[in-house]
Write a structure and sequence with these properties.
The chain is mainly α. It is 62% helix and 0% strand. It is built from twelve helices and no strands. About 3% of the residues have low confidence.
Length: 229
């Protein structure tokens, strides 16, 4: 028909594309991987000493550590004994590791903060791998008078909220001091003196306590039940 308009668009009379040829193969898409250079050198394995140093520094960033603690952390991460020894020796030389300073700080902090006595502190230092002589020197700074004063302060604080008959309170408080590492004599005398100053009833009970005899009996029982190394 003369008046019919020519069809346009995508039908039978659509115009051919302006550029290229329909028969040309499609151009390959260049992704990120294709754009990467293929001549880059392969990454080299990290130096074992560098890894060991990083492990140590991360451990030390949390809190001070003994040499034995750091050696254990390195062993868990598969660091060889030779590399571990070399790194830890170097840290010893420059003062990053100092078991003596660690022991002194540990004794001071745990005694003032938790009220632990020398026996409990010695056990903790041994578990952390501190040498026996180093631990003994650090514990020597905590004398018997200071230990007894700390025991009395602990008992006085506990007595403010203690409930029950004097004999039950006495046993609980002596047991509490024993768990903190106080010798039987120190624990019993500290509780007896504190009870004597608390009330007339408690003072009457305390007067009947033979601290020396009871301390000797407790000491014998403690030695019998102590595990053999």
């Amino acid at each position: 028909m003369a008046g019919r308009r020519a069809r346009t668009g995508r039908g039978w009379d659509a115009s051919p594309p302006r550029t290229g040829d329909a028969t040309d193969p499609p151009r390959p898409r260049r992704g990120r991987r294709a754009e990467q250079q293929t001549d880059e050198p392969a990454p080299t394995p990290r130096d074992e000493s560098e890894v060991a140093r990083e492990i140590c520094l991360r451990q030390l960033a949390v809190r001070p550590r003994t040499r034995a603690e750091l050696a254990g952390a390195l062993a868990k991460r598969g660091i060889s004994e030779q590399v571990s020894a070399e790194v830890l020796d170097r840290y010893d030389e420059v003062g990053i590791i100092d078991d003596a300073a660690f022991a002194r700080a540990w004794v001071s902090s745990r005694h003032s903060g938790r009220g632990l006595a020398r026996r409990a502190l010695a056990n903790e230092l041994r578990r952390k791998g501190v040498d026996g002589e180093v631990a003994t020197e650090a514990l020597g700074e905590l004398d018997e008078e200071t230990e007894a004063e700390t025991a009395r302060a602990l008992i006085e604080r506990k007595l403010r909220t203690a409930r029950g008959e004097p004999d039950a309170v006495f046993r609980r408080l002596v047991g509490m001091l024993a768990r903190k590492g106080y010798p039987p004599g120190v624990a019993i005398r500290a509780v007896k003196d504190a009870l004597a100053a608390q009330s007339a009833e408690a003072a009457e009970f305390a007067e009947q306590i033979d601290a020396d005899a009871l301390a000797d009996a407790e000491g014998d029982l403690d030695r019998d039940n102590r595990p053999v190394d």
